[in-house]
Design brief:
The chain has helices spanning 12-21, 41-48, 64-77, 94-99, 120-126, 162-185; strands spanning 2-7, 29-35, 52-55, 82-85, 104-108, 131-138, 148-155, 189-192, 195-198. The chain is α/β, with parallel strands linked by helices. The protein has a 7-stranded mixed beta sheet with strand order 3-2-1-4-5-6-7, with helices on both faces. Strands 8-9 form a two-stranded antiparallel sheet. Helix 1 (12-21) runs parallel beside helix 6 (162-185). The protein is globular and about 50 Å long. It starts with a strand and ends in a 5-residue tail after the last strand. It binds 5-O-phosphono-beta-D-ribofuranosylamine. 5-O-phosphono-beta-D-ribofuranosylamine is lined by residues 7, 9-14, 86-87, 107-109, 170, 173. It catalyses: N(1)-(5-phospho-beta-D-ribosyl)glycinamide + (6R)-10-formyltetrahydrofolate = N(2)-formyl-N(1)-(5-phospho-beta-D-ribosyl)glycinamide + (6S)-5,6,7,8-tetrahydrofolate + H(+).
């Protein structure tokens, strides 16, 4: 499976995907990393791994639709079949979501459907949650929604700060994202409505 990863910054989840894909036995290959922000750390990570990069700067497009078209064109010119959003901080248009329907996943730093949107760690602390975590899900038009591929939970500890909790969740993200991509690339799941069906290997 030829994968394109969309980023906006640090790219630590991208790194987890690159590290997993470095194993020849991994069923997906990262063929392109696209950032909407120039010169971010994630682009350097891709270059170091020998993966092609592109910057599609949203500031150079007059609207979201034009920007999203440029991103899709860039991905398709590199033969991308499947998209992973990894800290991509742009809302995408419904046209973009439709184009990549069931071919695009995102990682979100909360146990969805709890805490869609931003500031998830602070909100989990404010609510007194004892468990928090991350979710990999197929992308639908409504932000941070769509069929859930996998989730990982971490404990919220009494002395946690937003930062200490974010670090613990991030560790879980880095394990979860490659695992979920592997499931998809091995065609072990199918989507039915908003649910994911795990197929048995005997089928
Ligand atoms: C991660 O917490 C991810 O869940 C969220 O944005 C952050 C990106 O971090 N969507 P990185 O760029 O992968 O290091």
């Amino acid at each position: 499976l030829k994968v394109g990863v969309l980023i906006s910054g640090r790219g630590s989840n991208l790194q987890a995907l690159l590290d997993a894909a470095a194993d020849p036995a991994f069923p997906a290959e990262v063929v392109l990393v696209v950032s909407n922000v120039p010169n971010v750390t994630g682009l350097a990570r891709a270059q170091k791994a020998g993966v092609a990069t592109a910057t599609v700067n949203h500031r150079e497009y007059k609207n979201r639709l034009d920007f999203d078209h440029a991103v899709t064109e860039t991905l398709e010119n590199s033969g991308v079949e499947f998209v992973c959003l990894a800290g991509f901080m742009r809302l995408v248009t419904k046209e973009f979501v439709a184009h990549w329907h069931n071919r695009m996943i995102n990682i979100h730093p909360a146990l969805l459907p709890l805490f869609p949107g931003l500031d998830t760690h602070q909100r989990a602390l404010d609510e007194g949650c004892k468990l928090h975590g991350c979710t990999v899900h197929f992308v639908r038009h409504e932000m941070d929604s769509g069929p859930i591929v996998g989730q990982a939970a971490v404990p919220v500890l009494p002395d946690d700060t937003e930062n200490s909790l974010a670090i613990r969740v991030l560790g879980a993200e880095h394990r979860l994202y490659p695992e979920c991509l592997k499931l998809i690339a091995e065609q072990k799941i199918t989507i039915s409505g908003n649910r994911l069906i795990h197929r048995h290997t005997s089928q």
